[in-house]
Amino acid sequence: MDADSAWEVFVSYLLIRDHDVTLDVIRSGIVDGSNDGGIDAVYSVLEGTVLETDASILDNPSVAKSYPEGLALELHVIQSKNTNGFSQTAVTKLQSTLTAVLDLSRSLDSLSEEIRAEVLERFDIFRRSLTNLLVRRPRVSISIYVASHGIAEKAPENYAASVRRLEGDIGDLLPVARVTVESIGAEQLWRLYDVRSPETLELECDELLSSGQSYIALAPLSKYIDLICDSDLTVRRHLFDANVRDYQGQVAVNKEISATLRDSNSPEFWWLNNGVTIICDDAHTVGKKIALRNIQIVNGLQTSHTIARWFADELEKSGDGTEAVKHKRLLVRVIVADEDPVRDRIIRATNRQTPVPDASLRATDRIQRQIERYFETRGLFYDRRKGYYRNLGKDPASIISIAYLGQAMYALAYGRPEIARGKPNSLLAEDARYRQAFDETADLAVFYWAAQVLRAVDSHLQSPMSQTRYPERRYLSPVIAFATVTKALGEAPQHWTTLLPLVANDRQFSDMELEEVAATVKGALDKFTDEHSTTPSEATKRQPFTQYLAALLTK
């Protein structure tokens, strides 16, 4: 499958996956080819099911009687261009095709010389379904998607005008339908990709109080375990995706939680534990049972994992954990918040109550999730949630932390190794510098490449080939990485866009190249420290040496 075909499948899947489609269904709706009229995929959906050419409603109008009045009939038309922008020409082409195929007074056969058969076949499914279902007064919607890699909000005005005209013309042709035309750019595609399928879980409580869309509950530990674990007591990790760090093992606080759980003479568990905070899209109650849609446990991960591990141990000892959890309850706060800014504020507030590194508080930002997904496709594991991949048993050499990537970006993308040389955790607490290091508009490949280069330098400095003494490695690594990239570019990097030629060519550096640059850096450092009466450690913390080194490498 070539890149354009893969793009069509990917975009089509994201746009109609809520209908529980298979890859075969996706492929059957793709109509791209010569004379496709600017249309790449078409899907007709009746009451949540994608219709195929053998659907009974197409040939047997009497089948309509089995459907309720007001049923939903949807048409999804997709134009997916593997390009970086949105053009008026593409919409104009759609306009010409759609006004023809959706004109019910016009035979599709009359269009056979202009439009390929696969396109006409998919619109025939919709037209016949609509005609046969009119007696049931269906709710008809027509969704037209124009997708590309571009930024939808920056589409030219003539494009926007064409979109409005297309929407109006289709609405005039089919007044019975609700017509929308959506421009789907990189940002919208990421949001679609990052959304999980809706999931509703239930929590049974002993006590339940409500205030508006918020709840406070006392839940039996046995019921809370049912909420967070599968039947084999494996913790459902996706429920904790919004946490800023993963399970930290046998740290002091987790040992205390375990001790409280094991102590049969301990006061009520919920008296001694802060409980957990759950955010969700929706919640409703029946008696003392609460149904939660799309939950995220944003505070209480350590408590949750410790409870699950303790119960598994008790079950292994006795074969029945009933007695162990008897009378033990947990305080649970539930907040309905379906807006990202509100969720982020809750996450930050609840995690400020215990010491968390500043870099970790950035873990739920969209750019951090994007980097994590991208790195995983390239064989690296981005530890935005501290300890997550370690707990999964991944090779430590393949794990990159937020702080480490911030260090790589400062040194390589912005030519500031003296900043990277400092304390990246503290630096990432400064919003302006964080936004620079993790620019949301940056190509994800730049982050990956920068991490790879800094990791290659670190590996080289640990190798027998390196002549760098052990104490020097700590402060020379970002400087050598900066010098290596500066030499390759012929100029000091000022912005992540400077790196794009090297990233595009996947420029790698051999041990010999790195050792040669390391020798240059050390020689320059010796001369600089002599001239300025300072130490190597201090010099590498200051911009004057960075500028001195850059001038030496680019003269």
Written account of the structure:
It contains 25 helices and 15 strands. The protein is of the alpha/beta class and 555 residues long. It has 3 domains: 3-194, no CATH class; 200-355, no CATH class; 362-554, no CATH class. Helix 4 (88-101) runs parallel beside helix 6 (157-173), helix 9 (252-262) crosses helix 11 (301-318) and helix 14 (366-377) packs across helix 20. The chain is flat.
Share of residues in helices: 40-55%
Q: Low-confidence spans: pLDDT under 50, at least 5 residues?
A: 352-356
Number of helices: 25
Average pLDDT metric: 87
Give me the count of strands.
15
Largest sheet: 5 strands, mixed
Distance between the termini: 47 Å
**Radius of gyration using CA atoms only:** 29 Å
Task: Give the total of domains.
Answer: 3
Query: Which strand order does the major sheet show?
Result: 2-1-3-4-5
Strand content: 15-25%
Structural class: alpha/beta
Shape: flat
